[in-house]
Amino acid sequence: MVIREFVEQDWSQVWPIIQDVIRAQETFPYDPAMTPDAAYGMWAEAPPGRTVVAADGERVLGTAKMGTNRPGPGAHVSTASFMVAADARGQGVGTALCRDALTWARHQGYAGMQFNAVVESNRSAVDLYRREGFEVVGTVPGAFRHPTLGRVGLHVMYQEF
Amino acid sequence: MVIREFVEQDWSQVWPIIQDVIRAQETFPYDPAMTPDAAYGMWAEAPPGRTVVAADGERVLGTAKMGTNRPGPGAHVSTASFMVAADARGQGVGTALCRDALTWARHQGYAGMQFNAVVESNRSAVDLYRREGFEVVGTVPGAFRHPTLGRVGLHVMYQEF
Questions:
Q1: For B12-27, what is each residue's pLDDT tens digit?
Q2: Looking at the complex, does the CB of residue B23 fall below 8 Å from at least one CB of chain A?
Q3: Residue A114: its chain B contacts at CB < 8 A?
Q4: Could you tell me the CATH number of the domain that includes residue B119?
Q5: Omega before B48 cis (within 30°)?
Q6: Could you give the C-alpha distances from A88 to A94, A119, A136, B1, in angstroms and in order?
Q7: In a mutagenesis test of the A interface, which of B137, B146, B152, B159 is the best target, namely the one with the most A β-carbons within 10 Å?
């Protein structure tokens, strides 16, 4: 598996990953009816942001986007989002994407990385981020409506570099 | 003072308020070089969001925007932002705008209201929100670069209805 910059030809494999994730409504507070065009605009980051894929040969296993979390006086903090194809989970793809994003953000000179809305019940993501150095700095109670669990919290997670 | 819906003719008074606030870089993580057009797009909310002004006769003293904090599974939580003209501060304009936003959000059926990035050193805002029922659910350390205080935290504040 290699992590490389996203190119337009990857979209035919990246969009189904995004569509699966947003339709499930279990891990991202995104519009589940998002169109492919809107998703492309949201996921394919223009510089100074960056979008990558984790690929095994021709196959895209997962994808990440990263960039500045807030403009102006907040622009020293980065953020990132990760999605892994359903049948590629549990194999370290998310960890590899997270490490790649952290390396990139450090090299860009950011002071830290913030995740704004990590679904509390998404244990594999929360555990992964903790292993990679993030802490939960706060949880907005019930801010995410999970299809089977009902209202669960959204963690804000942060790591200073 | 009345609080009423923002109309386009208010912009000549609203833009200077926004410009002052974002140029000061003390209270909002917004781009201080934001153009008037970008500011209009950011501040004048399309339905289901809403933008209001606090007016004393012809004079605009302050403004607020409010709407849904996150799409999809996060859409039951509202958010709002408030700005008051420098020479109208300390007179209850912010409190009136905050109460108006809370009333609106309750009537719209939201389950709560979240503020995503309240600058820790902005004591008058933090105290006002606390008085109106919000709690700090977490603070991202150093996430805001204040022009004189250096890096200060950004509070996430929340109120369940």
A1: 999 999 999 999 999 9
A2: no
A3: 140, 143
A4: 3.40.630.30
A5: yes
A6: 9, 20, 26, 59
A7: B137
Q: Inspect the interface and report whether the beta carbons of B138 and A138 lie closer than 8 Å.
A: yes
Residue B51 contacts residue B45 (beta carbons within 8 Å): yes
- The number of domains in chain B is 1
pLDDT digits (tens, 9 = 90+) for A113-151: 999 999 999 999 999 999 999 999 999 999 999 999 999
Name which of B72, B75, B141 is nearest A158 (Cβ-Cβ). Answer: B141
The parent domain of residue B89 ranges over 2-160
Phi, psi of B87 (to 5 degrees): -85, 10
Model-level pTM greater than 0.95? yes
Distances (CA, A) of B64 to A34, B19, B39, B54, B113: 28, 14, 13, 8, 14
For residue A76, give the nearest of B25, B77, B145 by CB distance: B145
For B125, what's the count of Cα atoms within 13 Å in the CB-facing half-sphere?
Answer: 20
Scan for tokens 């709002």, then name that residue: B80
DSSP-assigned letter for residue A131:
H
